[in-house]
Amino acid sequence: MDGALEAQYAIATGKLLSLSEQQLIDCSSSYGNEGCSGGLMENAYTYIKSAGLDQESTYPYIAKNNACQVPLEKRSDGIPAGEVTGFHMLDQTEQGLMKALADAPVSIAMYASDPDFRFYQSGVYSSKTCHGRIDHGVVAVGYGTENGEDYFVIRNSWGSSWGQDGYFYLKRGVSGYGECNILEYMCVATLKSH
């Protein structure tokens, strides 16, 4: 989710920030999220709307739940409170996602517990067993067609050593909620005008 917001903010302001995932883990529980056990994008955006979000360098990632480390009134070196004015959910269609991608990357949820997906290295990913309950947040950044095969380009959060430098291609044109249910839950932040 941070990756989509970082891109939206950079497009709106010309400032590229690296935002703190750890702050969302530690501080958004009163908004309905559950730290490392998961949460919802709309809860995170609601938290950022009221509290802002620090940069990664100020509030670094430690990969575990922790108490919120920054007093609410001091969160200002990243995206300030009020910069995110809300969010909206996208229509659950490929066309809706593609239209949104014309403006900025999109936060999406997907089913990522398919064993084959964990070991993805390259190519357009497709699996007959990738249709379980959504359980992982990623960022859709684009789409394309190669050798007659349509795909979305998606940035994962598992680091640059996974997949294709941290990205993967996911098959487009799959009915229902799409491959790995990526069309089920798509959310875009709304930023104040600049």
UniProtKB/TrEMBL annotation:
Domain Peptidase C1A papain C-terminal: 1-190
Molecular-function GO terms, alphabetical: cysteine-type peptidase activity
Cited InterPro entries: Papain-like_cys_pep_sf (IPR038765), Pept_his_AS (IPR025660), Peptidase_C1A (IPR013128), Peptidase_C1A_C (IPR000668), Peptidase_C1A_papain-like (IPR039417)
Domain of life: Eukaryota
Keyword Membrane listed: no
A biological process term (GO) from this entry: proteolysis
Keywords: Zymogen
SUPFAM superfamilies, A to Z: Cysteine proteinases (SSF54001)
PANTHER family tied to this protein: CYSTEINE PROTEASE FAMILY C1-RELATED (PTHR12411)
Similarity section: Belongs to the peptidase C1 family.
Protein name: Thiolproteinase SmTP1, putative
